[in-house]
């Protein structure tokens, strides 16, 4: 694939993903989260990502494996301990979430979140492992001029004093605006949200309530304590979930099933996330099993006007509205 052919494929893929957002925001919140999160993890190219954005909501659950994290009595005591502490951590949640995610399937992603404001920024990979010379021609998956540059932004924009769902694609200098933003999930208890936990972390404005509900329904378990960068953290492991892929998407990647796992490390004093690992493995088809994984490191910023502004999608000057 040469430069012009790749650009044409990318234009079609990003356009399809962007256009699908209008329908996604009309669905219930968990379906929107599934489409947004699932599309970040299980792609092998931009065309696959667009297919996921359009079809991920059709995925049906087939197997759920519980994580015990110890005996029932031990886990009950661990949950009671966490619950008693997170109830006193609410005052620490008036902060700006700043996440930085890196993985093996895509470029760097950055996430900022504050209340109802949210911005997810995805970059092209800084390098192309398939950059090569074949029959005297240079071939690649991502043209050199794109590498390391912003590819796509999604989240909320302030338009006329009101928050609107928005997306920006930088390669063709276009943007789209939709209706009011969809509320974040209250827990990881549903299959759709469990699937979304397999990739870059989805911020929540109320982490204490999110963790309480997720532990209470059995979607995760307390599995230990770990020091990260000098911080004592509580390790919370989500139960693995295996789903059967929608037929069209499965054919596109040569797999029939996907298994998602995730682990969250929260500050043992504030119970705010410090680090999250998420992974999605596809298997069961003609292609070899493939694992997409990412690690999100989280910083918590003071709610200054400048930091809060980072949680808004900005429409660059000169970009054309297409939706």
Number of domains: 1
Number of strands: 16
Strand percentage lies at 25-35%
**Uncertain residue ranges:** 1-68
> On the 0-100 scale, what is the average pLDDT?
76
Structural category is: alpha+beta
Separation of the first and last Cα atoms:
30 Å
- Counted by DSSP, the helix tally is 8
- The coarse silhouette is globular
What's the main sheet like? 14 strands, mixed
Query: What's the gyration radius in Å?
Result: 20 Å
Helix content: 25-40%
Order of helix and strand elements from N to C terminus: HHHEHEEEEEEEEHHEEEHEEEHE
Concise structural overview:
With 323 residues, the chain is α+β, with helices and mostly antiparallel strands.
Characterization of the model:
The protein is an alpha+beta fold. It has one domain (3-321). The chain is 27% helix and 34% strand. It is built from 8 helices and 16 strands. The protein has helices at residues 3-24, 29-41, 46-55, 72-86, 191-196, 207-216, 247-253, 305-309; strands at 60-64, 96-103, 109-114, 117-123, 132-134, 137-139, 150-159, 162-169, 174-177, 220-228, 231-238, 241-244, 257-267, 273-283, 290-301, 320-321. Strands 1, 2, 3, 4, 7, 8, 9, 10, 11, 12, 13, 14, 15 and 16 form a 14-stranded mixed β-sheet that branches. It has a two-stranded antiparallel sheet with strand order 5-6. It is globular.
């Amino acid at each position: 694939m040469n430069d012009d052919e790749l650009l044409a494929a990318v234009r079609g893929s990003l356009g399809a993903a962007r256009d699908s957002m209008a329908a996604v925001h009309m669905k219930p919140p968990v379906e929107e989260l599934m489409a947004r999160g699932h599309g970040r993890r299980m792609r092998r190219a931009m065309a696959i990502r667009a297919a996921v954005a359009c079809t991920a909501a059709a995925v049906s659950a087939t197997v759920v494996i519980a994580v015990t994290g110890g005996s029932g009595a031990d886990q009950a005591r661990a949950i009671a301990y966490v619950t008693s502490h997170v109830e006193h951590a609410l005052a620490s949640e008036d902060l700006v979430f700043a996440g930085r995610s890196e993985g093996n399937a895509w470029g760097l992603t950055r996430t900022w979140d504050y209340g109802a404001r949210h911005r997810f920024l995805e970059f092209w990979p800084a390098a192309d492992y398939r950059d090569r010379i074949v029959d005297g021609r240079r071939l690649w998956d991502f043209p050199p001029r794109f590498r390391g540059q912003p590819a796509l932004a999604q989240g909320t924009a302030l338009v006329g004093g009101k928050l609107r769902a928005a997306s920006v694609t930088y390669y063709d200098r276009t943007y789209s605006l939709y209706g009011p933003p969809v509320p974040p999930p209250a827990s990881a208890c549903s299959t759709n949200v469990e699937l979304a936990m397999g990739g870059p972390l989805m911020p929540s404005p109320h982490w204490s309530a999110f963790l309480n509900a997720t532990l209470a329904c059995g979607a995760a378990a307390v599995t230990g304590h770990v020091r990260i960068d000098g911080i004592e953290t509580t390790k919370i492991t989500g139960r693995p979930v295996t789903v059967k892929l929608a037929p069209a998407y499965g054919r596109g990647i040569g797999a029939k099933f996907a298994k998602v796992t995730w682990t969250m490390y929260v500050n043992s004093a504030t119970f705010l996330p410090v680090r999250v690992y998420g992974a999605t493995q596809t298997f069961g088809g003609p292609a070899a099993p493939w694992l997409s994984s990412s690690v999100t490191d989280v910083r918590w910023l003071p709610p200054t006007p400048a930091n809060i502004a980072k949680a808004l999608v900005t429409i660059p000057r000169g970009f054309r509205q297409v939706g």
